[in-house]
Amino acid sequence: MLHSRRQYSGIGSNREAELWAILWAVEGMRSTNQQNITFEADFEQAREVFLNPNRFPSLRSLSSTILAMLSDLESWRFAHVNTSRNFPATRIAASVTRDNRTQSYVARGGPYWLSQTLNEEKRLG
Description:
This protein is mainly alpha-helical. Helices cover 50% and strands 8% of the residues. The longest helix is centred in the first third of the chain and has 18 residues, at 14-31. GO terms for molecular function: nucleic acid binding; RNA-DNA hybrid ribonuclease activity.
């Protein structure tokens, strides 16, 4: 909720988009001095870049930037989460894509269904 204000264009692949999303998340946590962070995502393609960087030379700069920023954080980890378990993020992404939203409506309080969805996830969490 702190950083739902960013959009990217001109991304060449899903793999690159996943890396940009990670960079955005890391930047946000770093700029707000967050600690003990768990990044949850289903980014299998980005994971592959970090595990096998030599296979993706065109993404080396971006992945190196992410790793450098992570080194500034005191305590962090990545956790793989299936898309079906991260329902609020999936629903936000679907509404942005479907409705062609270019401005962040989440940062302004979100649509009526968002708080219900987040509260339900918290309850089930």
